[in-house]
Amino acid sequence: MLFMLQHNLLLIKLLAFATVFSSFLCSTSHRLGVSVNGIREKCFELTIISEVKKERNLEEVFFTNMFWTTTVFAAIIAFASAKPEPNLFEQVITDELRKLLTPYDPHTFPTIPNLNITHDDTSLLFNFVEDTFTGFSSVECTQFTPPILTKEVVLTLNEERLDMHASNYQVEGLLNGQPLSATGVADLVAHNLGVSLKFQADSYKLSPLSLCVATGSLHIDFRVESLDSNFENAEELNQEIDTRGPELIEILQDYVMLYAEDIVTFLNSHLCKP
After folding, report:
1. Per residue in 65-108, pLDDT tens?
2. How far apart are CA 134 and CA 164, in angstroms?
């Protein structure tokens, strides 16, 4: 498979080089008014059908152009459908995201108000003060599906460990049908936190890396291997979070989606380049 990818990449590069080089020769010979080994005649044959000399009939030129068009298209399809070499795109994105996020890690939110967790017979309203997140700059991009054939982009990120510390939290509501009211210091550790982002790309290029996200197209999915919680004065809550972490983390995505457009603005301000 790697050989197939390398072969397809080589084919694309050769076709691109041939196109650029022939265009250069055509434009140069045209400006100089000279013919080098029939270059000017070949330029007419390979570019604009309407300028073809009578030495070749229209049908022959049509099939010649059709052959090259089909070859280029097939090469692009093969490249897009082949399995890329591991970390071909992902490593570039990982490096860019780490450079982007490192200055913000750790980051403290003065408040995170009115975080509502509702599931079955549990309905809890959280408020956090001085909530600090640490470790998110160690993010790794594990999957990137570029908008080659469509505008859809899939970006999957993984955090091996993400720590949260709040100097104070307050929670009110029902936990498994029982009243709960607690306050104090809170610590939470997420292990192997995964985030999958799907969106439509307005534009995209690799060199330099630029990715522009279409407004209103972002969707985010969360997953987590496990959670370790230590909410002061709420042992029942800690047990629930530790036991049902993967299920509870999915509920948080609804809260995060409320800020989807803010996330799009943030991403575009750093990744969308002219």
Report:
1. 444 444 444 444 444 444 455 567 899 889 988 998 999 999 99
2. 7
